[in-house]
# Entry
Amino acid sequence: MITISIDGQEVQARPGWTVLETARHHGFYIPTLCYHEAVSPSGVCRMCLVQLGEGPQAKLVASCMYPVAEGMKIFTDTDRVRNVRRWILEMLVSECPASTEIRDMAARYNVTGTRFEIENPDEQCMLCGLCTRVCTEVVGLAAISTVSRGVHKKVGTPFLRPTEVCVECGCCVTICPTNAMQARIDSVRGVS
# Structure
C-alpha cells in the first residue's frame, strides 16, 4: 500500500490508483465531468484538478490521470484550485451554455456569467469524449467519434452521416454528463 495525504489526512492507496480513485475511495469530494469508472480517463474537462504539494513548488494536476506516489500531499479545495475551477466553468458556460448541468455546477462555484464569447447559445456538448469512449471501449463499436479539428470539432458519425453500426444501446446517452447526446442520438441513427 502507498501512503499519501489528502487535505491533511493520511490515507492508503493501492499501487496503480490515481489521485481521484484514492480520494473517492476515502470519501473526499473532487468534482468531475469527463470522468467515468467504466472508461479510461482522458483529463479533458480539468474539473478534477487538485493541488499537489505546498508552497511555491506546488502544482495543479488532473486527479483522474495522476498516479499516486508514496508521500504525496494532495489538497482538493485550496483557493488556487477553486479559482481555476471557476475559470474552467466560465469557459464551459461559454462553450455549452444550454447545459443545465454545467450551469448548475457553475452556480455552486458562484459563476453566474462568462467573459468568453458564446458562439452557439443552444450548445450542450462540452466535447468531453465520454460518449465516444464508451462506444469504443465498452460497447466495442466506435459508431461515433470526434470529427473535424480545432473549433470545428464535434461528436458525430464518420462523414457526419447516419450509421448502421449503432446498435441503439443508449450507453452514449446514459454516460453524457450534459445530456447533449440525447439530442444527437437520432442523427447518429438516421432518424429524422
The first helix runs from residue 19 to 25.
